[in-house]
Every structure is written in C-alpha cells, then in structure tokens.
Amino acid sequence: MDTALVAESVDILARSTTTTSVGLIGYIIIGGLAGFVASKIMKGAGSGILMNIVIGIVGALIGGFLLSFAFDTAGGGWIFTFLTALLGSVILLWIVGKVRSRA
C-alpha cells in the first residue's frame, strides 16, 4: 500500500473532523442564521428558531465534511463557518425536499 496515499487520506479525515475556532455559542448563532437563510433560499415556510439552529448545525457538519476535501476548514473564522453552514444547510434542505416529494 502506498504510504503517501494513506498519509493524505488520514490528513483529509483529520481536517473533516476538526472544529473551527468559533466555539459552541458561535455554532448556535451561525447555525440559526444559516438555517434561516437556507430555508429562505430553498423557499421554505420557516421552521422556527430551534429547527433553524438544528438545520444550520447539521448543515455545518455536512458542509464542513464536503469542503474539507478541498480546503482547511478548521482555519476559517466566522464568515467561512457561516458560508460552510449555509452550503451544507441548502444541501440538507434539498435532500429533505427530494425525500418528501417521493413519499
């Protein structure tokens, strides 16, 4: 097995599980904002502040995982974290919309 490939894979996985420097309160604030904006982008009726926070935080995990393959997501600040959470939230709401339309 190629050791360089293994080292690169470990590096990518480590980046995808690293949190940024915004802290827990920052994730809640950013999650709420990202969930709200994503629901407006996806033409949602609004989910309430608690669901917006959940959507935003789960979206941040999805977006952070996807972007970690191309960028060092742990090095980002508030704006990068918000954009990452927004991207992941839009993807999450799109997937939920597709699943609901099939049911």
From TrEMBL:
Keywords: Cell membrane, Membrane, Transmembrane, Transmembrane helix. It is found in: Cell membrane. The chain crosses the membrane at residues 12-37, 49-71, 77-97. InterPro entries: Transgly_assoc (IPR007341). It is a multi-pass membrane protein. It comes from the Bacteria. GO terms for cellular component: plasma membrane. Belongs to the UPF0410 family. This is Transglycosylase-associated protein. It comes from Mycolicibacterium tokaiense. The lineage of its organism: Bacteria, Bacillati, Actinomycetota, Actinomycetes, Mycobacteriales.
